[in-house]
Design goal:
heterodimer; A: 309 residues; mainly alpha; 2 domains; 12 helices; 0% strand; B: D-Maltodextrin-Binding Protein, domain 2; 10-stranded mixed beta sheet; 14 helices; 21 strands
Amino acid sequence: MNVLVSRLVQAVMVAVLIGTATFVMMRSLPGDAAWRIAAGRYGYDRVDAASADAVRAELGLDGPTLPALVQWLGDLARFDFGTSLVTGQPVIKEIVHQLGATVSLALAALLLSLLIGPPLGILAGLRPGGALDRALLVASTGLKAAPQFLIALVLIVLVAVQLRWLPAAGHGEPRHFILPALTLALGLSAVNARIARDAMARIADMPYWRFAQWKGLSERQTLLRHGLRGVSVPLVTYLGLQFVTLVEGVIIVESIFGWPGIGHALVHAIFSRDVPMVQGTALMLGLGFVLINAAIDLAVNRLDPRTAS
Amino acid sequence: MNVIRSFIATTAVAALVAGAGLAQTGETLDVAAQYEIQGPEPSTSGYIFTRMGISETLVNADADGQLTRGLAIEWSVSDDGLTWDFTLREGVTFHDGTAMDAATVVNALEIARGKPGPLADLPITGITAGDGSVEIALSEPLAALPAFLAEFRAQILAPASYGADGSGTDIIGTGPYRITAMEPPLSLDATAYEGYWGDMPQIAEVTYSGVSRVETRALMAESGEAEFVFGLDPASVTRLGGLDTVDVLSVAIPRTLLMKVNAGHPFLAKPEARRALSLAIDRAGIAAAVLRYPEGADQLFPPSVAGWHSDEIAPLGYDVAQAQQILADLGWEAGSDGILARDGERFALTLTTYPDRPELPLVAAVLEQQFRTIGVELTINTTNSSEIPSGHQDGSLELALIARNFSLVPDPIGTVMSDYVGNGDWGAMNWQNEQFATLVRGIARGEGDDGDRAQAAAILQDELPIIPIAWYQQTLAVLDRVEGAEIDPFERSFGLQDMRWAE
């Protein structure tokens, strides 16, 4: 229970800090916001003084900073995120739409990475120094070092263009998930394979592991009864950190694969000075961190009761 | 090794799940282009709806820029040039089933006129509904008015498309396709509208995807994911051109890559100085190496802008020695670092450009090299496109590299008026020419002929308030399972209603 209360306090602090920080940063960017918003709305062929003046008059952008910030925080307390300066749609509506796309992509990627990384890591950890272990070290170092846009393009060229198995880009059907999710998953599993491998190697060296085998359990039984839980603790803990990698990757992967998610929205909102959209998306990502870390705390407490005390 | 066996099983299941998605989609024509849908608002994203054949305008334009019938079947102007009468097509219904009549057209035009755009700047005093016709009253003659009504922001939508304040809430047009689903910013689905007044489209189901990265769009054509891919970069054109399954179409469009010059800047105030910069530009080299076009621009207007393009005027050339001589005559001398100086000031300028069109920063980098050979130092500032009109307004802009479209309104007079007679944000800066202004105002009233247009173009060539560099080509890729695709040089339509599946 304590965990939840402290995380709740943390969530409120994160909301206020992120809202204020994005607000101050957007205000202190060089260039006139009305011009940037007009360019975002009307495009480079049509942005001119008349459209910038129309935007300025419509949005009242010349007001002082502090009252505008206080009003935003007040609106936030009533769960009102405001409307997008570019599209005129409520921010919450756009975020819910985009967050849904991102969360489904992130979950698919996470699931896929858990299918790829830990099983390989556990196999490698059972035979440290073996052929699989050495191959895995090379593969995961390479994948971790390769930038995600490179992995994405290689996958598109290989799977979509050469083999023609999957679409190069798009959104809406299950098959559209596979390439972007795989791009993200390869980066994630490069790390969680190593973590699973190290944890497994450490556990396989423990006296209780040897005792389990001595008493007659097969390797499979030893792993299921005495290995998996131990391996899962560092893996789950590390998921919280992998969320950072995921958010970072989502921004790149979404723009390459034409995925209508929150990373894509954030980049566009920053370019066109859409302050409410930037605040809303940044807030969602910040709260996402808190939520995931709270969930991980709870999960680790269950997996390893020693940490609860 | 049971563990290994279960791992292999898991992988196999994952591969099967992946394989289940491999079946080809049904007979839907997928369009991919760079434009994102802002929302159901004709003043911002209207060009996507007109190009997709969802909404229509009173007047259309053919491939030569000649105005043709749209939702209006004929138009006439009174002798004093102040009253225009547009006869509306009969039997036209909106996608919600309601009839298009004079009152709905007036409503749509009045809402469009209240938003920023070309209609807002016209000398219109009133729009009234007649019997099957619409009358537009002007305070001064405007021969190009029908062309303005062909612009996408003048599209005619049903009254139910607008909220109480005039903002767009839904796109209920009259076109051959009606929207079945729209998910801003990236996708739109449409189906053939059974109540369309013209020929029914042969391909019933179409989709639109906004894909901002050109590499991804090209790969979508290469992998067969999208049948119609709009806006390719030079590298993709080369690669897609070598494939059997894809046809690459290309057409010269009325858009020019040009350098906007602050003619009020002390270094650039004399036309000779601007001519020297122009002579230092190797247009053929830029066209061949960066844009992969057959030729550069030797005047502002491309050959497709009938009347304004003139074979009579002396073409812009490339002559470094002459450029150096002109600058020497203007009192510039090379300093120790090779950069020219005069009265203790170095010939150093900032060139502003924007990355929305990927070729612009590349061309800017080439210009930096070419200007260095005549001793002019460029600093490239690649930034938001709005920095150019705002720098124009506050006078801080020095040079800008831009792509200017002369067919936002199918008649270039609209762009020429705003850019070179008025204080157009994307046109001449601190440059005025009485003779030019008189000619262009006459053409706008409908009094000028092609001789006047050529004369006006010659003045621009002589004075160089802007320095033309290249004429654009629009390119698109169509899969060979689609027939009948054509590319519209005025970028008004994707032409989906005229396409059909190959036998």
